Amino acid sequence: MARKTLIDKLAILADAAKYDASCASSGTATRSSLGKNGAKEGLGSTEGMGICHAYAPDGRCISLLKILLTNFCIFDCRYCVNRVSSNVERARFTVDEVVRLTLDFYKRNYIEGLFLSSGIIQSPDYTMEQIVEVARVLREDHNFRGYIHLKTIPEADPLLIQKAGELADRVSINVELPKESSLEHFAPEKSQPVIRKAMAGVKVRLDDVQDARDSRILRKAKAPVFAPGGQSTQMIIGADKSTDSDILKTSTDLYSGYGLRRVYYSAFSPMQDASLDLPPVRPPLMREHRLYQADWLLRFYDFERSEIDAATTDGMLDLDIDPKLAWALRHRETFPIDVNRAPRHLMLRIPGLGAKTVDRLIEARRMTAVRLTDLTKLTNTVRKAMPFIQTADYHPGGLLDTTNLRARFAPAPEQLALAL
Asked: Under the phi-then-psi rule, with left for phi > 0, alpha for psi from -120 to 50, and beta for the rest, what region is 226?
């Protein structure tokens, strides 16, 4: 068998990394600046393997080289395409190869940082040592100042995870599945108590660093650095029978218990294992999208989890309309909301109005009575909001009570195509 080149490895391990959902890739058509005969015909290309977009702690959108150190793995997690029993093409980077790729891409202005994860080889400690060594060489030997996100291994020595946090901008530990019973069934080598203990260890270290920064004694001294972007986690959805309510409950517990910056939801496609005992298939990407929307309402729109649960059917979010609209349709007695008088927490419940739009509305109404035309200048989703709002010159009247209000927003039925 021919030895794999660095480009061969990049193609395999960048593709394998797409299942790690801790940064959002941007999808587009493949384009090149070269014509069919190899001649230069334009500028730019979309063929940068492994390049994805993520957000830095200060909110900047940055490009990252997103790869696995290796997709070899000694674990046999049944939901993972890279499990030991999976028949996928394997590859492995050396530490120096990852460092070289990162620096070369960075110097060419393709990326601003690195997202590094890995399958488990030899042992969790050995693999974690390799991941940490990549970050150490970049930081200490090459003075790399770019963004680094490291996926850490909960079974590894806590000192290795601590070292990862000292070198990386953000660390993450995958919680994997919403329920402990599911993890025991689908990934018997993994343990939820071990995962939670590792996450708790990261939180303790983050709290210690924050306390040091706040300490009067250390105000004039250089505070210790540990994962300034915090920690995040990834949860696979659709691999077990957990409902959306189950998933959101787990997420809420993780946010409150471990101070996570983000829970990432990764839609599972049951292509790897026909023996998985799965619930009826729901469109996985749309389900993932609705969970992100519900997660956003809980974190930034003052919704309680019980309110989200109340807008579900048998614990599942409506796939045709977003969770805020679903809640509004079930609580029509709350509306219409007068945008000139209502408090902010009620304004945040108006479908179609985001938090920034609400803040602009509150600022605008201090100067003048907000009219419908004023609202159209602040947002392009006025049509969605109209049944639920009242302005100085507009009242929805009976629109709020119409029986077909949901159909006004739900997508139209599509004719199914016949298989030929």
From this structure: beta
Q: How far is it, in rounded angstroms, from Cα 371 to Cα 168? A: 49
Q: What share of the chain is helix, strand, coil (3-state, %, to 5)?
A: 40, 15, 45
Ordered by start, the domain boundaries in the chain are 6-23+47-272, 323-409
- The Cα 294–Cα 323 span in angstroms is 6
Cα–Cα distance measured from residue 239 to residue 237, given in angstroms and rounded to the nearest whole number: 6
Domain range 6-23+47-272, CATH architecture: Alpha-Beta Barrel (3.20)
Q: Which residues of the chain have pLDDT under 50?
A: 24-34, 40-48, 272, 274, 418-420
DSSP assignment string, 199-221: HHHHHHHHHHHHHHHH-STTTTS
Q: Are 72 and 4 in contact (CB under 8 A)?
A: no
User: What is the maximum span of the chain, computed from C-alpha positions, in angstroms?
Assistant: 75
Q: Alpha-carbon distance 298 to 237, whole Å?
A: 18
Q: Which of 86, 54, 98 is nearest to 261 (CA)?
A: 54
pLDDT one-digit tens code per residue, 161-185: 999 999 999 999 999 999 999 999 9
Establish whether the linkage from the previous residue to 188 is cis, with ω within 30° of 0: no
Distance CA 269, CA 281 (A): 9
- Per residue in 227-261, pLDDT tens? 999 999 999 999 899 999 999 999 999 999 999 99
Q: State how far the Cα of 419 lies from the Cα of 417, in Å rounded to an integer.
A: 6
141 Cβ neighbours under 8 A, 6+ residues apart: none
Alpha carbon distance 9, 303 (integer Å): 45
Which residues on neighbouring strands pair with residue 70, listed in sequence order? Answer: 92
As given in the structure block, the two tokens for residue 402 are 């119409």
**For residue 120, what are its two tokens?**
């488990």
> Do 64 and 110 touch, CB atoms closer than 8 A?
no
CA atoms of 241 and 8, how far apart (whole Å)? 37
Looking at the chain, the whole-number percentage of residues with pLDDT higher than 70 is 84
What's the confidence (pLDDT) of residue 275? 52
CB 245 within 8 A of CB 315: yes
pLDDT at position 62 is 77
CA distance 91 to 118: 11
pLDDT of residue 26: 35
